[in-house]
Amino acid sequence: QGQEKLSCNPKKENGTHVVLCELGNPMKAGAQITVDMELSVSGLEDMGDAITFQLQLRSKNSPSSTNASVTVTVPVEAQAEMELRGNSLPDTTVLPTSWQGVEGSRRLEDHGIKVEHVYELHNKGPSTVSGVSLRLAVPHQLGGHVLLYLLELGTEGGMNCTHHPDLNPAQV
């Protein structure tokens, strides 16, 4: 009839995480109780499509091996919104109509104007993400001529990077 908050205590029992909630004592024979539970579970990124809970009602007064048990499977849906931000340094570059690179030179300025592109991938949540892959296509040639000379590629924040096959071919 009335609503009350239950006192629940987490503990480990035989290597399993258990949450014990005291429903009340004593209860009258034939009593019916409805319980709404809200559980907060972290680390579900690698749990698959569902998580399973086993619910069991136990009586302290009459221990029995026939205590009813119910299995509840709840679908897991992780949601995360990703945002890609990027900029160039300098933000505007005017390329000459004809460029004559110095053949065999190892000086950067003999291969063109330096332009640095920086991209940041942000997780706007609400869930965490893992196994994210970002594929970035960079036009490095135009009409058989070098448009951008790809010098180096780097990452920060524990990310892995696969290098482009045309990265720094002259070893500048």
From TrEMBL:
Keywords: Glycoprotein, Integrin, Membrane. One of its GO terms (cellular component) is integrin complex. GO terms for molecular function: integrin binding. Residues 83-171 form the Integrin alpha third immunoglobulin-like domain. It is found in: Membrane. It is a single-pass type I membrane protein. Pfam families: Integrin_A_Ig_2, Integrin_A_Ig_3. Residues 3-76 form the Integrin alpha second immunoglobulin-like domain. Its main location: membrane. GO terms for biological process: angiogenesis; cell adhesion mediated by integrin; cell-cell adhesion; cell-matrix adhesion; integrin-mediated signaling pathway. InterPro entries: Integrin_alpha_Ig-like_2, Integrin_alpha_Ig-like_3, Integrin_dom_sf. This is Integrin alpha-IIb.
